[in-house]
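User: For my dataset I need records formatted as: sequence, then structure tokens, nothing else. Please produce one.
Assistant:
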Amino acid sequence: MKKGKLGVQMMMVKGKVEELGVYETMRKINELGYHAVEVSQIPMTEENVSELKRASKDFDIKIAALSAGLEPMASGAPGETLTNNFEKIVSDCKTLDCSFVRIGMLPVNVMGDKEKIMKFIEKAEKMANRLAEHGIELYYHNHHIEFAKYDGEYLLDIMKNSTSKLGFELDVHWIYRGGENPVEFIKKYENRISLLHLKDYRIGQMDLSGVDLKDRAKFGEIFTNVIEFAEVGEGSLDMKAIIEAGLESGAQYFLVEQDLQYGRDPFDCLKTSADNLRKLGYEDWF
């Protein structure tokens, strides 16, 4: 029976990496039962790459994907990019036995400008072909802004339909926040989605303590910003249907992510998600 691999998007534990180091953070991920990670927002220093490799071997954790910008997010922004650090990123992939690199989001200097976005996607497609020569696949991760429409068509669909080599790492929370049913949307991206982000969606509690209710602007801000990133199984998304649609559409890695944890320890959040995924019947996907 076909199955996928559950893992952790390490952006969630970047604070733990700063506190404990890569190796001990990976040890904890292993103790929670996860055996795949996507590396994001972790500095790819020589030491960190070496520790990722050591932990991967010692704890049997697959490095599913690395993260890199295509080009700087904004002028002078820090971080490695495929444009400026191609050989280094390819080398890291080879060192870590990783065959996926993912672009986390659009550069801020092209957001909201369709012409600039399409030039960016054209460059990404060329980069995807270049990486393919090294056995590496390039993926693009969506948020909600790609559900803006141009001439009646979602930007994300325009991006997909104008490329063939570039893959898409669909994030189910952001699809839902963009106004679409994640299950049905995933099906449209069959064979373009080896990587899928499992992130639930919930409406949080409004905290109006200390707010002057005559301050309509402040009230409005709180009222419209009660959406939260939930642990898998703690929100309103049909995670079982999402996972099955992902599997049928070609997803290999199902990566748990929660952008904000609202005061909870990220390891505790990851445990809640893991427990709920086991209850859904995915024990053998860990």
